[in-house]
Amino acid sequence: MQESAYPTVYLPIAQPRTGPLRLFFYGSLLGGLLITAAVLWTGVAKNENIGMAWFVGKIPAWQGISIGLLIGTLFAIGMWYGGRYIEGFIAIRQKIAEALDLESIHWWHAIALSVIAAVPEEIFFRGAMQPTLGLVLTALIFGALHAMTRLYFGYAMLAGLGLGLLANWYGNLWTPIAAHFAVNCWSLILLAQWSRSTENQKAPTH
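Now predict its structure.
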């Protein structure tokens, strides 16, 4: 059998991007684990009343949720438009676009995915971990677990500090949950819109 005179070139195989249904599946599993861990930490190991510790605070729940949604929305939109001028955030946006099938994400996906991320993460980090480890150490751990780049570590750590301060100021988790939800939801919606507009610009015109 005669060998070819030309070397064989192996092209890298593009990895499939993660779509909203798979994100929801894995997010639900992780969320369930975080809530279970938080319940064991707070309700069993520390023998505290979970409802009182997490959801009874200085203001009614609807006020806490409203404040959190407002703060999270302002933060997410400010970071989105401000991040357009920071090279590190542009690189993060590109990394997310390479990993996730953003064109398939619509507003209802953004809402569902944000709920299953914000609720268990706040219950675990601000509800269970922060009362034991403190504000700063919890924010550092939160940042480290979200660190896709060094810049994103800093961003996530500062976000963790902000969410932790909201929990301390208002005495419950409604406000940080709502703020976390708003940040994730608006970020996903804006990323999906950006990705679809980018793909439309790449499409050949006839």
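The chain is about 75% helix and 0% strand.
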